[in-house]
Design brief:
- It is a single chain.
- By secondary structure, the protein is of the alpha/beta class.
- The chain folds into three domains: about 50 residues, Winged helix-like DNA-binding domain superfamily/Winged helix DNA-binding domain (Arc Repressor Mutant, subunit A, Orthogonal Bundle), CATH 1.10.10.10; about 120 residues, 3-Layer(aba) Sandwich (Rossmann fold); about 170 residues, Response regulator (Rossmann fold, 3-Layer(aba) Sandwich).
- The strands form three sheets. It has a six-stranded parallel sheet, with helices on both faces.
- Strand 3, helix 5 and strand 4 form a beta-alpha-beta unit.
- Helix 5 crosses helix 13 and helix 10 crosses helix 11.
Length: about 400
C-alpha cells in the first residue's frame, strides 16, 4: 500500500512590479503625462526639463509618439496632445498644384506631399497645368470627391473667383497659395514687402556703381496675375525711391514680360531698340523675367548699362549671381521647400475648428552673391538641367 504524500501549495515569492517595467514604455508614459498637465503645445526643451530625459531620447520618443498618432506636431519643434476628433479622423485634403513643369511649384508640391504623409493626411493631388480651364475642372473634381479642404495653387486671377465659388458652394474650405481667392485663407508672399526689399538692394547698388545716377527704371510685370503680385513691382519702385527720391514717373516703364524668360527677352529687345539709356535699373516680377531682360542687354552689348533684381531666388538666378561680372544684384527668396509644413498646419487647424489668420506670409530674404553660398551651400549638387524649366515659370 502506497503512502500518500501531501503536497503543499507552492509559496509564491513577491516580485516588485518594477521588474516588469519596460523602460522605453515608462519614458513614453512620462512624456504623455506632460501633456495631461498642459493643454498648449510643448517644445523638446520643455519635455526634457520636465522628464529629465536626454534630448536625444526625448526626441526619438516624441517622433515615435507622433508617428503612432498619440501626439501631433503642428510646427517645427512643437508638440501637442491629439484631440479626440483628430484621433478618430483621417482627413482627405485636395491639392491643386500650379504645374509640375515649373521648379518653384515642384518644390511647393514636394513639401506638401512630404508633410501630408508625415501628419497622416490623405492627399488627393491634381495639377492645374498652368491653365484656368483645368483649374476649374479640378475644383469640380474636388467637389465630387467630397474632400474636407482644398489647397489651391493657380495663377489666373479671373478663374480664381470661379474656382472659389464652386468649392465654397460645396462647403469646402480653401487655402490659396500665392494668388488670393475669394473666401479663401491666403498663404504665400508678402508681395509689397518682397518688392521693397528688392528695391532697396537695387538702389544701393546704383549708388555704389553709378553714384546714384539712374536714367530709367524698367519693371517687368505679369498682367494676368492681378494686382497683388503687381504690388511686388510697386514695392520695388517705392524701395528705389526711398534711397533715390528724384526719379520721376516719366523715367519709369512697366513692361509685360508675361512672367516668362522668352517673353521678357523679346520685350526687352524691343525696348532697347528705342532707348539708349546708360543707367537702367531692372526690377522683375520673378527670376525668369529678370534673366530674360539681362540676356537682352548682354546681346545688345549693353550689359554694363543695367543692374537687375529678381524674385524667388531660383537655381538659375543663383547661378547667375555666382557668374563673374554678372549685373544681377540679387533676388528675394521665398523658400518654397518650407511651404508644406506651414500650409498643412494651417489646414489641420482649420479642420479642427481653430481660428487661423486670413493671410499668412512667408519669410523673405534678399539673396546676393555675398550670401548665396551660406543660404544654398548644396547648389553644386544640382545639375544644370534640374532647373531649366523654371525659366518658363511665372513665379
Amino acid at each position: 500500500m502506497k503512502k500518500s504524500v501531501k503536497v503543499e501549495p507552492a509559496k509564491l515569492t513577491s516580485i516588485p512590479s518594477s521588474v516588469y517595467n519596460i523602460q522605453a514604455v515608462q519614458r513614453a508614459c512620462d512624456i504623455l503625462k506632460c501633456f495631461q498637465q498642459c493643454q498648449s503645445t510643448l517644445t523638446l526643451s520643455d519635455i526634457v526639463a520636465t522628464t529629465n530625459l536626454s534630448r536625444t531620447t526625448a526626441f526619438r520618443l516624441l517622433a515615435t509618439l507622433v508617428e503612432q498618432g498619440m501626439l501631433e506636431r503642428p510646427a517645427k519643434n512643437q508638440y501637442r496632445a491629439v484631440s479626440e476628433r483628430w484621433r478618430h479622423t483621417r482627413y482627405r485634403i485636395g491639392y491643386a498644384s500650379q504645374s509640375e513643369e515649373f521648379s518653384f511649384s515642384r518644390l511647393v508640391s514636394d513639401s506638401i506631399r512630404s508633410h501630408a504623409y508625415e501628419v497622416g493626411v490623405d492627399l488627393l493631388e491634381l495639377s492645374n497645368r498652368y491653365s484656368p480651364t483645368v483649374a476649374i475642372r479640378n475644383a469640380e473634381m474636388f467637389v465630387r470627391e467630397h474632400v474636407d479642404l482644398v489647397i489651391e495653387f493657380q495663377t489666373n486671377q479671373q478663374s480664381a473667383s470661379v474656382v472659389a465659388s464652386k468649392l465654397i458652394e460645396a462647403g469646402i474650405p480653401i487655402i490659396a497659395i500665392e494668388i488670393p481667392h475669394p473666401g479663401a485663407d491666403y498663404y504665400g508672399a508678402n508681395n509689397y514687402r518682397a518688392g521693397l526689399i528688392a528695391g532697396h538692394s537695387l538702389a544701393h547698388a546704383a549708388v555704389q556703381e553709378w553714384r546714384g545716377q539712374v536714367d530709367e527704371v524698367v519693371l517687368l510685370e505679369l498682367a494676368m496675375a492681378g494686382p497683388l503680385p503687381r504690388s511686388r513691382l510697386t514695392g520695388m519702385l517705392a524701395g528705389i525711391r526711398e534711397i533715390l527720391p528724384k526719379i520721376p514717373d516719366q523715367r519709369v516703364r512697366f513692361i509685360n514680360g508675361n512672367g516668362r524668360f522668352e517673353n521678357s527677352l523679346q520685350v526687352t529687345r524691343r525696348y532697347l531698340q528705342h532707348v539708349k539709356a546708360k543707367h537702367v535699373l531692372i526690377g522683375a516680377l520673378n527670376d525668369p523675367s529678370c534673366l530674360g531682360a539681362l540676356q537682352a542687354f548682354e546681346e545688345a552689348g549693353q550689359g554694363a548699362n543695367c543692374l537687375a533684381v529678381g524674385q524667388n531666388s531660383s537655381i538659375e538666378a543663383r547661378r547667375e549671381m555666382r557668374r563673374a561680372g554678372s549685373r544681377m544684384v540679387g533676388s528675394v527668396a521665398y523658400f518654397p521647400e518650407r511651404y508644406g509644413e506651414a500650409v498643412l498646419s494651417l489646414a489641420l487647424d482649420k479642420l479642427q475648428g481653430k481660428a487661423i489668420p486670413s493671410a499668412t506670409f512667408v519669410r523673405h530674404q534678399m539673396i546676393t552673391s555675398k550670401n548665396v553660398d551660406s543660404f544654398y551651400p548644396n547648389d553644386k549638387l544640382i545639375t544644370a538641367g534640374d532647373g531649366d524649366s523654371l525659366l518658363y515659370s511665372w513665379h
